[in-house]
Amino acid sequence: MAEEKIAGHPTRRLLIAAAVMAIIAVRKHDTFLNPQFWAEDGKVFFMQAEAMDWRVLFRPYEGYLHFLPRLIAAIGRGLPLYSVPVFYAATALLFTGLIAWTIQSPRIRVPAAWAGALAIAIIPHSGEVYLTICNLHWISAIGLFALVLMDDPATLPRRCGEIALLVIAGLTGPFVVLALPFFGWRAWRRRNRWSYLLLAVAVAATAAHVPSLLNRPAVEIAAAWDPVNLAAVIGRRLWVSLFAGQISVSRAVSVLLAIAIPVGLGWGLWRQKSAREGWLLLAGALAVLAAASFKARIDTWNHTDLVSGGRYFFAAKVLGLWAIAALLPAGTAAGRVLGAALLILPVAANYSRFIYPRFPDQRWAFYAGEIKKHHPVTVPILPDGFSFSHPGRPAR
After folding, report:
1. Nearest by Cα to 103 from 154, 143, 130
2. Please, which residues have CB within 8 angstroms of residue 94's CB and are 6 or more apart in sequence?
3. How far apart, in whole angstroms, are the C-alpha atoms of residue 229 and residue 346?
4. What is the pTM of this model?
5. Local mean pLDDT, 10-residue blocks, the chain (396 residues)
6. Which residues are registered as beta bridge partners of 380?
7. What is the dihedral of CA 171, 176, 177, 179, to 10 degrees?
8. For residue 390, how many C-alpha atoms fall within 13 Å in the half-sphere facing its CB?
9. Do 278 and 323 touch, CB atoms closer than 8 A?
10. Contacts of 287 (CB under 8 A, 6+ apart)
11. Which three-class secondary structure state does DSSP give residue 55?
């Protein structure tokens, strides 16, 4: 209990959350040095917010709702045009810090939440999740599983805050659908009013996504499912890239790791009483990977490609690293040394790609000026090849 109180101390939580935001800002520093739109941030959320129609907050895209990005875009509509991309990046960073703060709660039933928080900032991936509102649902998914693991709040402000987080995360991306069985398990296990309320909110959020999910066209790939290649891609992109970086491994080794590590990790979590509910982290990671595999047909990917679609492995890497850290001996010198090594290893193994390179300058300042002058323009945005057309803002 004393260790939990120290781990959940507000000052420590705040420092770790601040460190998470600082590391992300350093890793992707060009986002603030040269603010530009990223993909759907510009061509979907910015452009649709330009209509000044608040009903757009609940408009689905790609088969599900994006409440938080649309809310940020709607608020950003009142800012000077040049500052909109940096506003998007700043709010995405603050929300990421909020999730890092949340999962360090002393009411979390799985130890080493500090490792889960720091993992958000240090894991190797393509960088597209950081500082973009279109990818905030990968961050909010981690918050959903943290809510499942929490003990009940004792005060009204905490209850209101957790319900607000569940509503926002539940309406931002489809992951509440995956988390719903976990909220059901929580209600069945604890059988109290708060668990039933969380389950009811999760059901309502899931129901809000169902119509658009059912109407979303299926991915049309003629190739039959290849479970062996799927395991090879997951083993290489998840575990090898996390702890060994760019080293080359055979397809057979990748398949072995994709099976052996989850099995061994699950067995270890179940055997260790203090971390037993950590199996929820592992199950959550596997559920996210299963959904990503279905949506993106990961089984058709080349397992040696370490760049494309990095967002599909982001939440699984964070939850997986947290689950591994939960097995470490808490409150001991050995546990602290192993915990530090666990976080340093992904950075050291991927040091050459830890800081993201500068992006091409797409001259947003120029195009913002043209839009302000009511000139129609086609705006190039990041990544290269993306653009959107703007008719120019009418004079007020």
Report:
1. 143
2. 21
3. 24
4. 0.94
5. 53 95 97 95 95 87 95 95 97 98 92 94 94 96 95 94 97 96 95 96 96 78 85 94 90 94 92 86 93 90 86 95 90 82 91 93 94 94 93 79
6. 387
7. -170
8. 29
9. yes
10. 178
11. helix
